[in-house]
Design a protein that fits this description.
The complex is a heterodimer of chains A (127) and B (352). Chain A has a four-stranded parallel sheet, covered by helices on one side. The longest helix of chain A is centred in the middle third of the chain and has 15 residues. Helices cover 30% and strands 20% of the residues of chain A. Chain A has one domain. Chain B is of the alpha/beta class and 352 residues long. Chain B contains 16 helices and eight strands. In chain B, helix 3 packs across helix 5 and helix 4 packs antiparallel against helix 5. Helix content of chain B is 35%, strand content 12%. An eight-stranded parallel sheet of chain B has the order 1-2-3-4-5-6-7-8. Among the domains of chain B are: 40 residues; 104 residues; 89 residues, no CATH class. Classes of the chains: A alpha/beta (127), B alpha/beta (352). At the A-B interface, strand 1 of A face helix 15, strand 8 and helix 16 of B.
């Protein structure tokens, strides 16, 4: 069930922590939740991923669980053009960091081109 | 301080020349500012003099200047002459460096006095520390469930060292031993905690402490801004009642154990809201972990309490999205950040 953040008019940041690829939710929940945000201050989306597959090879299905990356990418780009935006990928442990970052950037080519994707590999700041 | 008073040097920061001129000129300006030489003694290089004849290039005659005084400055006195406020500030900057603080505190009395208030601002009342303090006889008594006068003995030890008045953050993890009965023999020490700003209690005996709240927590109420409860016992109504007895709370963290038996899940009809005398302002951060009640949940009741909640940040861990939404709606006016967990909870739920 997606969250409805329509009335949170001062929302600046949304953080989602989820198990990578094994999420048992409809794969457009992420898009639906982000679509409800109407705050003019919203400027950061953080995806904290648990359980990154050890061999995250190209073509891995894990990314598809999140679904609708292209629409998310367009949304992020539009917000960035309006007022600035950044997407943060956090992972505690990644076996092949370069694979992970390359694939994450591959899902979001527009916002990546604007250099607004940040990777933070290491312990989560908040348990 | 007497040495400082005798010092005749400048007590202000002289103005730097703002325009770009020669280094010599800058030195002159500094000298005149520091040694209060008249400004007119400084030879101005700006604007540069017009050359007499542009075609002829005469060598520039360097201006003869006194050699700079390169004598190393002598620092008289030691750090001991610094005002106490400055020393306190220096130690405050070492806040997270316990090793350095301990090293400083064993240097001299003055440093000891400044460092100890930082070292002891966090006090841990833990089962392990308490156990270490018990004698063999006491341990036998403890194991035979005769725990009055033993379960919180660690307070006596801390009081004997005189560190209780310095505490600002108090962490209590005595498992199920933190009860009014066990605390009562040491309550006179517990009342020394009169400046606690952040309180963390594991397995709080909520109904027990509610009955005698003023006896034990009245000293903490005026200063407490942040409350963290982990696995409190009792009904949800009691837990909310306990929370709202701290009228100046900004931050609230609530971690509930996930019951393995579905019959153990707390239920609470909507008609039994506790009587709240003064709703805390709740202007900071709300963290909720492991709250999975379905109907009449703690979250829904928290959201439906009278008064305004102005949380700026909410962290959900292992909560159901249906129970998150009322909290978000209740705080939407001030909410700046939301952090939630998806997926992991789904896995946990499937195992229950």
């Amino acid at each position: 069930m997606p969250l409805n953040l329509t009335d949170a008019r001062n929302l600046r940041s949304l953080t989602l922590r989820a198990a990578f690829g094994v999420i048992s939710l409809p794969n457009d929940v992420l898009f639906q939740t982000l679509s409800t945000i109407t705050s003019p201050l919203f400027s950061e989306f953080v995806l904290e991923v648990d359980s990154v597959p050890m061999n995250l090879e190209p073509g891995n299905d894990a990314w598809r669980w999140w679904g609708r990356w292209a629409e998310l990418d367009e949304m992020f780009e539009r917000i960035d053009m309006e007022r600035g935006f950044r997407v943060v990928f956090r992972a505690e442990e990644v076996d092949r960091e370069s694979n992970f970052t390359a694939q994450a950037e591959g899902q979001l080519p527009l916002i990546t081109a604007r250099k607004r994707v940040v990777f933070e590999i290491g312990p989560f700041p908040e348990k | 301080m007497e040495k400082f008073r005798k010092f005749d040097g400048p007590q202000w920061t002289p103005d730097l020349p703002t325009d770009s001129r020669s280094t010599d000129h800058t030195l002159h300006r500094w000298r005149s500012a520091i040694f209060r030489e008249p400004e007119n003694e400084v030879v101005s290089h700006y604007p540069p003099p017009e050359p007499a004849n542009e075609s002829t290039e005469e060598p520039r005659t360097p201006e003869v200047e006194p050699p700079p005084d390169l004598t190393p400055a002598t620092i008289s006195g030691t750090w001991k002459v610094l005002p106490q406020e400055l020393i306190n500030y220096i130690f405050f900057m070492l806040n997270d460096d316990l090793r350095s603080l301990k090293a400083c505190s064993s240097t001299c009395k003055l440093m000891f006095a400044s460092a100890r208030r930082i070292i002891h601002q966090k006090i841990y009342l833990s089962f392990e520390k308490n156990w270490e303090l018990l004698t063999l006889t006491e341990r036998r008594r403890y194991l035979s469930e005769d725990r009055v006068g033993l379960a919180v003995k660690v307070l006596s030890e801390l009081a004997a060292r005189g560190v209780l008045p310095y505490a600002r953050q108090l962490f209590i993890n005595l498992e199920r031993d933190f009860t009014p009965t066990n605390l009562q023999p040491f309550n006179h020490h517990f009342q020394c905690f009169d400046r606690i700003q952040e309180l963390t209690i594991s397995m709080l005996d909520t109904p027990g402490f509610l009955e005698s709240f003023d006896t034990y927590f009245a000293n903490i109420v005026p200063t407490l801004r942040s409350l963290h409860l982990e696995g409190p016992t009792g009904e949800t109504r009691d837990i909310l009642d306990f929370i709202c007895r701290f009228p100046y709370l900004d931050d609230l963290s609530l971690k509930m154990s996930i019951p393995t038996d579905p019959r153990d899940r707390r239920t609470w009809s909507s008609g039994t809201l506790p009587v709240i005398k003064c709703m805390p302002p709740f202007r900071g951060r709300l963290r909720l972990d492991g709250i999975i009640e379905r109907r009449g949940s703690l979250l829904q009741q928290l959201a439906s309490l009278p008064g305004k909640r102005r949380f700026r940040s909410i962290v959900f861990r292992n909560c159901e999205s249906e129970t998150e939404q009322p909290i978000i709606d209740a705080c939407c006016g001030t909410l700046e950040s939301v952090s939630t967990t998806w997926g992991k909870f789904s896995k946990c739920r499937s195992t229950l």
